[in-house]
Amino acid sequence: MKKKIYLLLFFLCFGILAENSTAAASSYQPKVSRIAGRNRRDTAIEVSKFIKNEKRVVIARDDHYADALSGSSFEGNSPAFLLRKGIDPAAVIQRIREINPEEILILGAESAVSKEQEQNFIDVFGKEKVIRIAGKNRYETSFAVAKASRRQNFMIASGENFPDALTAGALASQKNAGILLSRQSTLPLPVKNYLAPFSDPALIGGEAALSSTVEKDLISIGKTPTRISGSNRYETAVSLAETAPSSEILFIASGENYPDALAASSLASQYKAPILLSHKRNLPASAAEYIKKHRPKEVILLGGEAALSKNIETQIKNIDEPVVNHTAKEGGYIKITKDTPLYKDKTKSKTVHTIAAGKFAYVYKIEGSYLYLKQDGKSGYTNTLAYTTMMPYQESTYIPGPFISQVYPVDIPMGCESASALMALKRKGYALETTLPEFISDLPKTSRNPDLGFVGDPYKVVSGYYMTIHPKPLTQFANTYGNAQDLSGSSLDYLRMEILNGNPVVLWGTYQFNNPVYFKYWNGKTMATGIDNAHVVLLAGYDGKTGEYIIADPYNPKAPKEYWEYRVKEENLAKIYHLQKYAMVIR
Question: Is residue 293 within 8 Å of residue 247, measured between CB atoms?
């Protein structure tokens, strides 16, 4: 029997050791979850469901962050609820009924939480339970809350911006401290006088948040304040987190917008966990290093994807991957500084494209250390760091090549689309022997609908018809000569990237970029709106010094034999391009 027990213990111990060995060998990947509602008020209700406190709840206005953050001064973990002025608090009342607290604290004056809203709570819970704590302004309200909390240790944060007070609130309760708010330039006199009998406070944030004068105000009453700060709000949050023991849970809130995280200080306090701040799309390097160092088991994001994007989740889950240079931004552009392969997926099993050094690429998304790039109609993953974030508008280029006129040697009054397309093809080395009449002879044509082909005869002007061809059929036709892509709907930045990569762009606009003149026409199925002075030109270059596009215009009736090239300021071109956002590129 003893032998069997020893064997059992051996296998149990061996199993534990094997499990630990496997765990040690595997890479760290924290669980990432999210607490969010449809809006800031719903998010606060969702947060309250995780807080275990039946003694007290706090109510503040959802766009008065200072009052809500002052509530973290109270002992214990008090759920915070947010109200919008003029909105019925029925959902909040229902949630508070479920909690059944001993007291309901309304923070802020009636200009923040109205008398009518207060009466709603009194009608349901009784006057003895509903208590308003308020001052004439946010500083006096924080002072009134601090007095009511009976705290004897304090953290002082800016009352002019939310991030430092938000992250401090999560740790204040853990340190038995209250939150007091101050102006950047000077400590409010009531706060200064109130602090006199208590211990030395901590100043949260650098001198841009709380000036050296605030520090001197404290010294003048015999205090030796400790300043906890970083070079920005994100680093200040990390500095605060480092003053507390490591936690298995970490909260992350938006550093750009406060509402989703307003109610989270109590929840973070309950779990003795810090709150860090993040950009919407990319995790700050300081936050990433904190996660790597402390390795929490779970990271909880506060708010929906409008506050913290899906990409933040990906970066946290892949936190041990090499850190990408996050100067690249989703939806932005980078200049590749060495030949860079793009892969079908992050296993790098198949190369789908190689971007040549000196070319621009569009950053479609960032996943951990990988960039998903688009360039020359190809897209794929790379984790190269060989790029610069110099924006396309800082560089210049010109795409040389032949000029094609739609009025000489043959007058084709409705031939601007064909002339511009053929110019673009020739500048990329295609259709070198093709004349404009030859090009037009094979152009797809239709009786009414420019989405199907050219409407009518390019050699004639016929009223009542929208005599043009839209990008889709023209692109299909151009692909019989070379490499064309319909870029309709693309941003102007994307068109500029194509030009800077040496690819001419055909653009649908108006004659000489004048204001549009609209008219109604029959497209074969229904009445539609067209632009009577529509015109199509070639974008042949860009001047980064002046912010101008170089236009090769096939229509020059005053001097038909001359090459007509002129420049258009970006704001003027953008105004006309955005009427339809029609464009085609030749690569």
Answer: no
Going from the C-alpha of 291 to that of each of 38, 246, 284, 304, the distances in angstroms are 28, 10, 11, 21
Domain 333-390: assigned CATH number: 2.30.30.40
Question: Same topology for domains 333-390 and 397-586, yes or no?
Answer: no
Please state whether the predicted TM-score (pTM) of the whole model is above 0.70: no
Residue with the two structure tokens 């309950």: 270
Q: How far apart are CA 22 and CA 64, in angstroms?
A: 49
| Domain parsing of the chain, residue ranges | 31-317, 333-390, 397-586
pLDDT value for 80 = 83
Separation of alpha carbons 484 and 464, rounded Å? 31
The parts of the chain modelled with pLDDT lower than 50 are 1-26, 323-326, 392
Query: Distance between alpha carbon 212 and the CA centroid of its chain, in Å?
Result: 34
Handedness of CA 75, 80, 85, 88 (dihedral sign): negative
Closest CA to 83 of 102, 111, 51, 124: 111
Nearest to 384 by CA among 370, 364, 372: 370
The CATH class that applies to domain 397-586 reads alpha beta
